[in-house]
Amino acid sequence: MRLDDAMIDRVRSALALTAEPPSPARVAAALRAEGTVLGDSAVLEVTEALRAEISGAGPLDPLLREPGVTDVLVNGPSEVWVDRGDGLQRAPVRFRDEAAVRRLAGRLAASAGRRLDDAQPYVDARLAGGARLHAVLPPVSPAGTVISLRVPSARTFGLPDLVDAGTVPAGVEPWLTGVVRARLAFLVTGGTGTGKTTVLGALLARCDPGERLVLVEDAGELRPDHPHVVRLEARAANVEGAGRVGLDVLVRQALRMRPDRIVVGEVRGAEVVDLLAALNTGHEGGCGTLHANSAEDVPARLEALGIAAGLRREAVHAQAGAALDAVVHLRRDSARRRRLAQIDVARSRSGWLEMVPALRVGDDGEVTRGAGFERLAGRLARGGWAP
């Protein structure tokens, strides 16, 4: 027998009168009170559905538990998308109505200690299981509540894993190792969902085990396989608007923690000023990720962030040119697979930062050398590394 929506709502309301979680016995009793009797398997199915709705992610739970899923996106009651690593696909998941989507968004936000309502119609938070939640309510999203969930990987990837997966060509692996071991300052760049965090975590695993890594993140996503990792996470303001701790503050705190490397999970705001200052005051090997359409766009992105944080354009280029050594750029190829696209070296010409391609990777995996290859080899040699 299939329960209609009204019946499920009445069962939910009956169970909500007590603080106890749904159990088969309680669900069966609530159904009997409504004049409905179901078999054991049906009762268990209803119980699991109600548990997911009350304490989990509702109908999204099966997608979030599915191995390989990186993103789950809800654009409305009947439009759910999932990314399993090879691009977005429609998922056969439906919500009862817009109210159910909004209820889920509000409950997820509340579970992370955040507010989501008409007065605060958007939220960005990390859930207890590690997933990153972003949600927007009408009228900011006119078509209805929008939910975006970024799912952290359940496993830690090393460079050999990325080579096996085809993300990194085998011939480039020694050069990536060299960038880390020679303590070059570098950024991993690319668009959304290109695997920047995964690649950065794999590179950090190649750091000397004796080094102390201080990770500064907005949400804890990096999981490097390294014995000495210290984590700092930003904190959003509470419902009264107080208590915010930004990445810029955490970078300054990291400088006082005797770091061998300062790692910023995502450079996207005022923290760029403190990071560039740190890299220019003897903190070698610093790194992070940055959203950029191409490696060549990195100077413009840093310039925009630096100017927004109060630096003059000339100062941004001067500091970045002195601090940054290399850029590892990722993209999705024509088949939507994550690929390393190129390694560029940074240089300052007449006071302006520019990127020079050192190694490029084609869609067929062929690696070619660019004008910056000798410069990259020279920097690795000075750092005591020869691929």
List keywords for this structure.
387 residues, alpha/beta, Beta-Lactamase, Rossmann fold, 3 domains, nine-stranded mixed sheet, six-stranded antiparallel sheet, 13 helices, 22% strand, elongated
Give the structure's gist in a few sentences.
With 387 residues, the protein is of the alpha/beta class.
Query: Would you tell me the structural class of the helices and strands?
Result: alpha/beta
- How can the largest sheet be summarized? 9 strands, mixed
Instruction: Please state the second-level CATH architecture of the largest domain.
Output: 3-Layer(aba) Sandwich
Q: In the CATH scheme, what's the topology name of the largest domain?
A: Rossmann fold
Q: State the oligomer.
A: single chain
Assigned CATH class of the largest domain? Alpha Beta
Helix and strand run = HHHHEEEHEEEHHEHEEHEHEHHEEEEH
CATH superfamily of the largest domain: P-loop containing nucleotide triphosphate hydrolases
| β-sheet strand percentage | 15-25%
Description:
The chain has three domains: 1-55; 57-153, Beta-Lactamase; 159-382, Rossmann fold (3-Layer(aba) Sandwich), CATH 3.40.50. Helices cover 34% and strands 22% of the residues. It is built from 13 helices and 15 strands. It has helices at residues 5-16, 24-33, 40-55, 61-65, 98-111, 159-165, 173-181, 196-204, 247-254, 271-279, 298-308, 313-323, 373-382; strands spanning 71-76, 79-83, 88-90, 122-126, 132-136, 146-150, 186-190, 213-217, 229-233, 261-264, 287-291, 326-332, 338-349, 352-361, 367-369. Strands 9-8-10-11-7-12-13-14-15 form a nine-stranded mixed β-sheet, sandwiched between helices. Strands 3-2-1-6-5-4 form a six-stranded antiparallel β-sheet, with helices on one face. The N and C termini lie far apart (66 Å). The mean pLDDT is 86.
